[in-house]
Amino acid sequence: MIIRNALEEDIPHILNIINEAIINTTSVYDYAPRTLQTQTEWFNKKINDNMPVVVGEIDGKVIAFGSYGIFRPWEGYRFSVEHSVYVDKNHRGKGLGKKLLKQLIEKAKLQGYHTMIAGIDATNLASISLHEKFGFKEAGRFKEVGHKFNTWLDLVFMQLML
Description:
With about 160 residues, the protein is of the alpha+beta class. About 30% of the residues lie in helices and about 35% in strands.
């Protein structure tokens, strides 16, 4: 897999990956698929805010993406970022998310951030395990803060000091 900075022409591929996660998983607590316009606005905001969007590509096809942004919108949080990594459903479990997360951690360090945070659905044991391998520690667990597929969902926050 080649990891590179995302380009505008990657947005439809990113959109397909995120929409599959929205429709079929609890990785994202959204219900409705995003539109191309919404995903384009998201991408442009990331670029304007100097936040990375990286993609993983195999044989010229985008099969994963990751990004981060400021954890909360107040000035005092400017050194804390929250990230996300999504892998195409046909490529999960092959270590691709690990490669993207490593790249995001390196970028966050280079940009001078102090801590990186992940919000993970408590049932996503694979993601929790992945983050533990990078040294993330559970920093909090919120009971039944999400609701999707007629189920209350717990959210785990994990944190890595950079």
